[in-house]
Amino acid sequence: MATLSIDPRVSGRTADFVATDHRMLIDGRFVTAASGKTFPVYNPAAGEVLTYVPEAETEDVNRAVAAARRAFDEGPWPRMSPSERGRTLWQIADLIEKNLEEFAELESLDNGKPFKVARVADVPLTVDMFRYMAGWATKISGKTLPLSAGNDFHSYTLREPIGVVAQIIPWNFPLLMAAWKLAPALACGCTIILKLAEQTPLSGLRLAQVLDEAGLPPGVVNVLTGFGEGAGAPLAAHEQVDKVAFTGSTEVGKLIVQAATGNLKKVTLELGGKSPALVFPDARIDAAIRGTASAIFFNHGQCCCAGSRLYIHEKVFDEVVEGVSHVAEDIKLAPGLDPSCQMGPLVSDEQYRKVVGYIESGITDGAKVAAGGPASGVERGYFVRPTVLTNTNPRMKVVQEEIFGPVVCAIPFSDKELDAIVKRANDTLYGLAASVWTQNLSLAHKMSRAIRAGTVWVNCHNVFDASLPFGGYKQSGWGREMGEEVLNNYLETKAVTIAL
What we know:
Blueprint: H1 12-18, E1 24-26, E2 29-31, E3 38-43, E4 48-54, H2 58-73, H3 82-98, H4 100-111, H5 115-136, E5 144-145, E6 153-161, E7 164-168, H6 174-188, E8 191-196, H7 202-213, E9 221-225, H8 228-237, E10 243-247, H9 250-259, E11 266-270, E12 276-279, H10 285-297, E13 309-313, H11 317-330, H12 349-364, E14 368-371, E15 387-390, H13 397-400, E16 407-413, H14 421-425, E17 430-431, E18 433-437, H15 441-450, E19 455-458, E20 473-474, E21 477-478, E22 491-499
Helix pairs in contact: 2-8, 3-5, 3-6, 4-5, 5-6, 8-9, 10-11
């Protein structure tokens, strides 16, 4: 077994957790994989082994599904009063908040993101999500319905939990994505098997301890670590699973849909994006520069809604490109726990090679590098410099495909193209998000309606809240996360009619 690479800047408590004998949560007990297999988790800032976790496979999936099935069919959770479920969710939020520093350190170590960002964004937003959904637990209700047949019937609807839910989350926001999935499903009374991303399982395993400490009944939440082929695929195809909720790539999302056909389980998908940001000449240019730079460089560009296509009116094109390029060049690359860090490494060697490959592809196809480029200048770790490309065209891979890294294509448009710019913005397989930068209120509303995306931000980008629904059009997915709309993912509607 390799020597573990634990950053000496972490607290003793975090270091102890990283170095522990990690276990999965199945049926209220912390267990190893049935096969005894483990796999390494890497420190992306050093490219070295951070720790080892169990490798779940079909037998472990079967145990977890059986536990969740039993907990739903026979256990107290779906039958518990909504107020009791809400109090449990609030208790989970309190425990996460109590351990905020530890969770932020784990996210930084495991994912590579700056500790200071995880501390003020990832973990607080996770806490907010559990508290917001705790309030919804008591507000799930049906309706009474008047029938056209007359007054001889009393009809009403019930909203009931969908059942056993498989939830598969990505590696870009490990803790927050777990909260986006767990909190609404728990509020609705479902039972869950949560499959963590193999690249970033640590905060999810620590969260499993918090769920146990909060007093969730056995089997209500089961937490697995493993790979897509060994654990994710059998989970998505399992006949005793009623629903799959997946966040990840569009390619894997299509495989999830195919796997779900066996028992026609319900599916929701939050998938990829190639989000446009449109800067008009009347925009507040300083704000547009800062905002569009953040749109692509936040979380190292590893965001499904990253503003990776930057359309800029020709009157301000040079000014905006120069400004975004200056922002890119000034970003400090360092390990996430370094106090000077503004951007950490990408999550893995695989992701590093993918992003560098896209940059090199763009250059080969004729793109010009205004900032950044394929060389990081950092000796160890999976670091990629924030990169601004110009002189691109719509046929290039860097313009069409999701890169999932800190790479933006800046593209000019003219007054003659004002009517066509929406068509260019919508010229993508995806439809997750967009941003519009203008002081013209009429134009802002017009663009917001015309852009085919689940979220449109005006004079901002990457603004999230537990109350705001999030999801995509086209191949960016099915359904919505967060807000009241997410409850539809985990509820069935039953109509009851009584003859009077």
